[in-house]
Write a structure and sequence with these properties.
There is one protein chain. The protein is an alpha/beta fold and 199 residues long. The chain has a domain at 2-12 and 69-112 and 128-196: Rossmann fold, CATH 3.40.50. The chain has helices at 16-24, 39-53, 57-64, 73-83, 94-103, 132-142, 157-162, 173-178, 188-196; strands at 2-6, 85-93, 109-116, 122-126, 146-151, 165-169, 184-185. The protein has a seven-stranded mixed beta sheet with strand order 4-3-2-1-5-6-7, with helices on both faces. The longest helix is centred in the first third of the chain and has 15 residues, at 39-53. It is globular, with a radius of gyration of 17 Å.
């Protein structure tokens, strides 16, 4: 029995933090998991900047409300979900993801939680589990699933490498160069065909 595990940002929707960087005019917030492999370090860096600038959850949610899925993403996801089980594994947060899940037709999503003070300040974050994408893929395998994974960033590599088949999608040149063994695609049709070939 197969299950496809997909990253969210950069694969199905634009990068939330890049959109927020542009909306807030803070270029430092453009850093993502494509640039920084250590997610805890990256999130603490982001939260430090937000605290410094007096920005809270409300400001990010206002930006997220204006984000649409990448062109073709919903159609790709609908087609894939009609053929096999699909789970989105993301290091984003439930407080960010809901409007995006609605626009994608409410696919199953495993992600994390922000800690938010009463005044709306984001004070911290709780990861669902350590190495959440890899841990989830291994857990799915332990209950009889064969996983197929696709993502674009450093934090997707472990789940891609641990799966029966794994693909890079719209990844960086550096990640593709460092991992020539992983098939890399730019178009949803090509990714869909690659997934179908291993179902």
């Amino acid at each position: 029995m197969n299950i496809v595990c997909l990253d969210l940002e950069g694969v199905l929707v634009p990068e939330i933090w890049i959109a927020f960087s542009e909306a807030s005019g803070i270029p430092e917030l453009r850093r993502t998991t494509r640039d920084e492999p250590d997610y805890n370090k990256l999130m603490n860096f982001r939260l430090g900047i937000m605290k410094e600038r007096g920005l809270g959850l409300k400001e990010i949610q206002e930006t997220i409300a204006k984000i649409d899925p990448l062109p073709g993403a919903k159609e790709f996801l609908d087609t894939l979900r009609a053929e096999t089980q699909v789970l989105i594994l993301s290091d984003t947060f439930t407080q960010f993801a809901s409007p995006l899940m609605r626009k994608l037709g409410w696919p199953a999503l495993f992600c994390n939680e922000l800690e938010v003070a009463e005044n709306g300040e984001v004070t911290g974050f709780r990861m669902r589990c350590d190495q959440s994408k890899l841990t989830t893929v291994k857990a799915l395998q332990s209950i009889g699933f064969e996983t197929i994974a696709a993502g674009d960033s450093f934090n997707d590599l472990a789940m891609i490498q641990a799966s029966k088949a794994g693909f890079l999608f719209r990844s960086t040149e550096q990640i593709q160069k460092d991992h020539p063994e992983l098939p890399a695609f730019e178009r949803y049709d090509d990714l869909l065909n690659a997934i179908r070939s291993v179902l």
